[in-house]
Amino acid sequence: MPDTKNAPKAYPPSADMVANAHVTLSQYGSLYSESVSDSEGFWRREGGRVDWIKPFTKVKDVNFDLGHVSINWYADGTLNVAANCVDRHLATRGDQTAIIWEPDDPKDAAKHITYKQLHASVCKMANVLESLGVRRGDRVVIYLPMIPEAAYAMLACARIGAIHSIVFAGFSPDALSARINGCDAKLVITADHAPRGGRATALKSNTDAALLHCKDTVKCLVVKRTGGQTTWIDGRDYDCGEMMLEASDISHPAEMNAEDPLFILYTSGSTGQPKGVVHTSGGYLTYAAMTHEIVFDYHDGDVFWCTADVGWVTGHSYIVYGPLANGATTIMFEGVPTYPDASRFWQVCEKHKVNQFYTAPTAIRALMGQGKSFVEGCDLSDLKVLGTVGEPINPEAWNWYNDVVGKGKCPIVDTWWQTETGGHLMTPLPGAHEMKPGSAMKPFFGIKPMVLEPASGEVLEGNDVEGVLVIADSWPGQMRTIWGDHERFEKTYFSDYKGYYFTGDGCKRDADGDYWITGRVDDVINVSGHRMGTAEVESALVAHAKVAEAAVVGYPHAIKGQGIYCYVTLMNGEEPSDELYQELRKWVRTEIGPIASPDLIQWAPGLPKTRSGKIMRRILRKIAEDDFATLGDTSTLADPTVVTDLITNRMNKQ
Ligand code: ATP
Ligand code: MG
After folding, report:
1. Highest mean pLDDT range out of 107-116, 527-536, 633-642?
2. Which of 38, 62, 595, 612 has a CA that sits 20 to 30 A from residue 303's CA?
3. Would the pTM count as exceeding 0.90?
4. Which residues form the AMP-dependent synthetase/ligase domain (predicted)?
């Protein structure tokens, strides 16, 4: 890879890290073998992470055959997820902080919520939900900013056995009404306004607009976050704060079956129309708790910060369910990385003495573009482990994260997983594995990744192979269905490659047997007969000092079949020029080889991204093909004007 030329190829964990880690290399080896050779025995033991009301006797009942797909874990056990995340810690750590809430404006005070306080709030919220008629199995849509009430609402649903579906607060009224109707929700929980980056989104008026397109019976519970003005419909809208003041703080947790749904959550929509992923209770919680503890090497007393929003699966598993099941202290951050300035993440790390920090490549690239002075002013000496998730991380960004943020002493867990998988499937473990910039390295326990030849589906054995990534066996955190559309579930994940869970991602197993995610299968391009993941060309471009971000797609090319079309965002202060255009072409040619030479470069002041921050290459592909009329589902696009600008530039051929 271009930018690792002068750096060591792999970074071993420090002796310190190895000495204290939950899992060392030799333990990984023996546990991993056990987890795949005696899957039942392994997961029976791990099921002990959860407090069961009625213990399970059956561990696993799974069928991946098309037409009969069904996935069950711990199916005859009963439990309550909220009791596992809250009540069971009261005796031993009732006064420990469960959630540190860091508000958007650093001038406002952070809140430290103990497990006891969390318990009282969750019970009150559970009683509020019941008083509004929410019952076991009912759906509740949560459309809230990153405030403690979002966690209370999730756990209150879990407590009474209702199914939550969180809609990220950045979504429009249309996306919200589609999701309320999609799961036939009885109630939507929202706030008056959502402060973020110094601006406030009018969430309640978005909700009002959404509810115009929903059943009249849908009720609306409103958290007053700013106290700003909203319209109010008596009999439909309820004041959460007032009701919680009056509600009892005694609430009996419902006894739920392990396979009762816990939540519905839509995927990011990077590759098409979002899918309503269903996760259930016992297996999901076991897997979220286990991965949180082992992948981040979380120890009692550590402060854990995942910067995601609870609107994404990362926020579900690694802000709320995983950390709280483990009795951790978890940070909920309301703001954005660049407000008031690009030092905010690092200010928060210093202020709360963060030990594990987990973010996305999009944030790292954005902060890298601002220069390292924002990091250097902050004391990051408490950091032990860094994590990344969401997209392949370019080695350039990885190196910056490692050197500038981690000061070369914090292992980086590059966690590959999906909304569908509930928790991490591949990642290096901090005290066990070497790290290679950009590689997801190793399967987690119980995960059997296989690389297949895309066309024939033939299993590619051995090392140094590249193809599509499938998983050969189930794990407890796996999704169970698409809400209301089991057929789409089977078709999407089990029809292309018989008997396997198809991830939709491309993958390479290198000469050492380590895994690299090469991007979406749809994003693989074929240039003059050479198959190429777009991630590699993007990484080469990002490694150039003047390039902040790049997205690469294929487009029809008369001679090569597909040509390489690059959208390039320059670093702050850099200007596009013909010289730079030629220089970048030459750069990629020398870094990767003539076959990867860009055919076209379009300067892109911004790239189209999902609201979770992922580049939407399918839209870029359409623009490169001059097909502006059918861009596909754009409902999860963060900023539609980016697309309009790119189309205008494309039409003017810059
Ligand atoms: P949709 O399924 O609707 O197209 P999406 O796949 O972006 O949207 P998510 O579940 O949020 O929805 O994202 C999962 C995908 O993100 C993975 O399939 C993979 O392509 C990418 N991804 C996540 N983490 C990593 C990582 N560490 N390295 C590489 N890719 C990653
Ligand atoms: Mg996906």
Report:
1. 107-116
2. 612
3. yes
4. 87-474
